[in-house]
Each structure stands twice: as structure tokens, then as C-alpha cells.
Amino acid sequence: AQSVSQHNHHVILSEAASLELGCNYSYGGTVNLFWYVQYPGQHLQLLLKYFSGDPLVKGIKGFEAEFIKSKFSFNLRKPSVQWSDTAEYFCAVNAGSARQLTFGSGTQLTVLP
Amino acid sequence: AAGVIQSPRHLIKEKRETATLKCYPIPRHDTVYWYQQGPGQDPQFLISFYEKMQSDKGSIPDRFSAQQFSDYHSELNMSSLELGDSALYFCASSLLSKWVYGYTFGSGTRLTVV
Predict the structure, then answer these.
(1) Residue ranges of chain A whose pLDDT lies below 70
(2) How many other β-carbons are positioned within 10 Å of the β-carbon of residue A50?
(3) CB within 8 Å: B48 and A105
(4) What is the pLDDT of residue A97?
């Protein structure tokens, strides 16, 4: 079964700082990768996804992620964070024939104004 | 645009009671997924339905059951509730043929068992 690791549990940044959140997965075959954001008290919203093609994917709100197959990683990046980016970020993977997602444990991002 | 609708938004039940959570998918979506997110935890897949039939099953307890109706809405029935069932229950929907594009989550039902 696939698993997802997010090593940063809580990240605190000042506005305009650059962001990189780590995500590693374990599965040897073809995977589909997602980043979701959850603002306080709200539902999960899709930030971006990768399933084939260019390993550098761009999502909403200025986020991007790079799929590095050799490292089993799909790290999320943003060059300059804003206070409104304060939220919890979940990496998720789908692998094989199953359609459900396996989520990482999430990273709480706090951006200080 | 219409989103995934879940009801109720909040629910408080006592131990050993039953609860029914409802999910109304985006129109024309044929697949519904249920996830459970405990306090401070990541969402865990429970069960999914495609065209009113169970398609995948995750870590759903035997005390829970679910079904998808002819209008594609789904209900999650939870019996003999335990304190550990307190969680946020998310429903998501997609078109089976386009699920890989990422499915859409509802706002969730927060269940508190006291």
C-alpha cells in the first residue's frame, strides 16, 4: 500500500518569504500526486495535481510543485508567501487502480504579517 | 458553480446513538467518496460509490454503512457511536472518467460524540 510522508509538521514564515513543503511517497509504480489546502474551518481545496507530462506543475494562488521520480518526491513551493496562505497543506497520492487518495499528515503553515 | 453539499454541518450525538450524514454530489458526478478526518489527523478514506454500487472500501468500521441512491446522493450511517468517532467527515465527488483531475470535497460534517 502506498504511504505519504510530510516531514514538516508546522512551518512559520514571514510574509514575502519563500516556501517549500516536503512530500515523499512510497510506491514503485505509476502515481498521481496532489496538493490540497485546508483553510481554518473549511474543506479541502485542490491546489495542483500531477499525473503525467511536465514534472513541474503550476497551481492556483502562485503555488507550484515538482515531481522528482528518482526521489519519490513532490515538493510544494511558492516564491513569496502571503498572510492569507496561512492554512494546512496536505500532500496526497493515488496509485495503481484505486481511485481513493492517501493523504500525508499535513503541514500547518503560519505566515506572520 | 454548484459544489458538494453535506448535511448537517454539525452534529452532536451521545455514545451508542446512531447518526446519518448526507452528501449531495456535484450534478452529473457519478462517484462519491467518504473520508474521515480526526482531530489533528489527515483524512482517511472510508468508502466510495460509483453508479450506486460500492467501488472501493477503506478503513470503514463495521458499525458504519453507506449507500448511494438513484439521485446519486449518498448517506453514511453510523451506529453504536463511540467517542473516537468524533471527527470531520468529508464527502467528495467526481466523474469516474475524470477522477484523476482531482475530485471536489464538500465542507464536511463535524460529528461530536459525547
Answers:
(1) 97-98
(2) 19
(3) no
(4) 67
